[in-house]
Write a structure and sequence with these properties.
This protein is an alpha/beta fold and 391 residues long. Helices cover 35% and strands 18% of the residues.
């Protein structure tokens, strides 16, 4: 890890932005991406002409980076269109840091946009197309209701193996909603009780509709520059202290253990690069496509022992006022989920470390963990961020 340790804090996120989170009728994926991209560049105090690095991905286009370059009117000297699902935008960090450090580029824009809620060709149509374009040989013939069925398998196994209950899962949904109620940008801000989650319509046993993420539109972007440059830009720099990605499987049926994800690898490597541990994290942003995700990642990222996350989250432990602030924007369960949520974990982490979060602000936050998940517990990417005080 010595070479990676040398990259610790070498780059900083200098600008972040979102656009169209929730419902954005009349917009295209590209327009949401571009609006958030231009806002993030402006947030950093830069112009689009300053951008010479680009990272982007889309669930709907294999060569997505090329029309993005065209639409934004840039000519990047560094380009990364790695697509590993919702974790992609967290995974883009480390390669971009290498590119910045080598001098290949000076400012990297990472951006995403999706109108999966309001588009004519939306989530349902995309799922049907994927059966033909990206069939999973051990699952597609059985026509599972994925992704809920896949995550329900993991939840059921965790419940069987460790005694986790549906009430434990409901604690995750209720905590996310409590944070969302403090966030003006969150798509759903109505009160939510444990009983409402437990009595909600079942989607794929043991997951109810309230255990599942939102289906929204939304765009998000951030700008990464070298640390020495970030200190002279418009915003308080948020430094990348550690980053790692791991992929163990594509299909849920290929997981060796439904209760252990590749986050156990990406987290360990990111902590090692940062020289920190779970105990050092002030704020935690996890990809909560389903309530079971939060439990699995709390365990795999070292916040509690394997099998104990159900007990860990009880009694509002990850809600406002609890022992560990988790998904302070409301997460994919209550804030926004346009299909690939990973970029929003980073944006919220940055906003918390900048102290910009109003009612939901975690006082004195110096470090943050942002974690992305892709596919059906398939790809995992972990980032450790910090302020000047964490360097």
């Amino acid at each position: 890890m010595s070479a990676l340790n040398e990259l610790r804090g070498s780059a900083a996120i200098a600008g972040v932005a979102t656009f169209g989170c929730g419902e954005a009728p009349g917009f295209t994926d590209m327009e949401l991406l571009a609006r958030s991209a231009r806002a993030a560049v402006a947030d950093a105090g830069l112009k689009m002409s300053d951008i010479d690095g680009l990272c982007t991905a889309s669930a709907g286009a294999t060569m997505w980076a090329m029309p993005v370059v065209e639409y934004l009117g840039i000519r990047p000297t560094y380009l990364d269109s790695t697509m590993i699902g919702g974790s992609s935008f967290v995974a883009h960090l480390l390669p971009a840091m290498h590119a910045l450090q080598s001098g290949q580029c000076q400012a990297v824009l990472v951006c995403y946009g999706s109108t999966q809620r309001t588009a004519t060709f939306g989530r349902r149509e995309m799922g049907a197309a994927r059966k033909w374009l990206d069939p999973q040989p051990y699952e597609t013939p059985y026509e599972p209701f994925n992704p809920p069925t896949a995550y329900a398998l993991a939840a059921a196994r965790h419940m069987h193996q460790y005694g986790t209950t549906r009430r434990d899962l409901a604690e995750v949904a209720v905590a996310a909603r409590a944070w969302a109620r403090l966030n003006p940008e969150a798509f759903v801000r109505d009160p939510l009780s444990l009983d409402e989650v437990l009595n909600a319509r079942m989607v794929s046993d043991p997951l109810s509709v309230r255990d599942c993420c939102l289906v929204t539109d939304g765009g998000g972007a951030y700008v990464l520059v070298r640390a020495d440059r970030a200190r002279h830009l418009a915003q308080k720099p948020v430094y990348v202290l550690g980053n790692a990605s791991a992929v163990w499987n594509r299909q849920i049926s290929s997981m060796h253990d439904l209760t252990v994800t590749a986050a156990s690898q990406s987290g360990r490597q990111a902590y090692a690069m940062a020289g920190l541990s779970a105990a050092d994290m002030d704020v935690v942003q996890l990809y909560d496509a389903f309530t079971i995700n939060t439990l699995l990642f709390l365990e795999d990222l070292g916040f509690c022992p394997k099998g104990e996350a159900g007990r860990f989250v009880q009694d509002g432990a990850i809600a406002p006022g609890g022992r560990l602030p988790v998904n302070t924007n409301g997460g994919g369960l209550s804030c926004v989920h346009p299909g690939m949520y990973g970029i929003f974990t980073l944006i919220e982490a940055v906003r918390q470390l900048r102290g910009e979060c109003g009612e939901r602000q975690v006082a004195g936050a110096v470090t943050a963990l942002a974690h992305g998940n892709g596919g059906t517990l398939s790809s995992q990417a972990t980032a450790i961020l910090g302020t000047d005080a964490a360097l």
